[in-house]
Amino acid sequence: MVDRRQQPLARDAMAYVLAGGRGSRLKELTDNRAKPAVYFGGKTRIIDFALSNAINSGIRRIGVATQYKAHSLIRHLQRGWNFLRPERNESFDILPASQRVSEFQWYEGTADAVFQNIDIIEPYAPKYMVILAGDHIYKMDYELMLQQHVDSGANVTVGCLEVPRKDASGFGVMAVDANDVITEFVEKPADPPAMPGNPDMSLASMGIYVFDTDFLIEQLRRDAETPGSKHDFGGDIIPYLVEHGKAVAHRFSSSCIRAAEEIEEYWRDVGTVDAYWEANIDLTDVVPKLNMYDSDWPIWTYSEITAPAKFVHDEDGRRGTAISSLVSGDCIVSGAVASRSLLFTGVKMGSFSNVHEAVVLPYCNIGRSARLRKVVIDRGVRIPEGLVVGEDPELDAQRFSRTENGVCLITKAMIDRLA
Question: Which part of the chain is the Glucose-1-phosphate adenylyltransferase/Bifunctional protein GlmU-like C-terminal hexapeptide domain (predicted)?
């Protein structure tokens, strides 16, 4: 008998990442970039997690479908993910919506974003397709999901999370039998199905699907010819297979990657400003829920060549200091204080400025004596000297995009309006 560990299924798989969504709940953060291209964790982008999971799982053929304002995302992919080599039987394809099927048709749904590129997929002849959402933060070994898919004889295997039933209405939710065969799949139900034996919990779709490639292509062609279909995996393909085939749930707990000190199965949809801010700030904890320092499961990204971070001045009231913070390369903290904050690449802090619980995206400049609390600052913003944010909720709401939880999103256009 062949030892599967010597013949990983991932080597016969292609990962196909759906990265075309805007993510409008992130407000102005996605005015000029797609949600998967949004910065996260000090130096990475959201899409790097799905791509890193694929690489770390052993998958060496990857496609990324893009659509909404894709330039920032495509540039990142070209710079950071160009190490896969055809001569090693590897591939990395960026697949913008380009009216390949019709002069008038962009990607009309998640399934259509794969259907329109069948002619690119087929020459690679992958045996399995791993369909991934490009906008979630998590670490997962797809090889284990592939193994379950083959062992169960499923037509499709659906990655799922256990979530409180009261919170499940925002997901695609599945009912399963005792063998995790899916008996019902509904998108955003008002009354989510409960898990067997656990009436307070539901199984929610992660937007991760495994298919045999030939079967997937058959289904995509069938769906493309189906009147009234929205050509969506969660809305059309999966419900059809639940009724007419064999769909099996794969629980995230079975393949979640956790370092020794990570106590929970970490998965986050950072789709709102509050969730985005919280997930970033969580990384400043002494023992964060998500370990970004795990060399056994690294998060790959584009790493700019930069000077080291620098902290200068050592006088009372003017001391360059960072406390419980993540500080990236090319940052200069000049007689300023950053506490429980993330400073992305190239951030400059002027003397006497102070940030607390701040997510400061690349190449921002914090003016002298500015005081900022509980903020997300978009890339390249120049904060004026003496600006105070986070101390007067009414004034903050007039000038910036303030959430119900009191997080202020600050963009260049908002600062320009202050002048």
Answer: 307-410
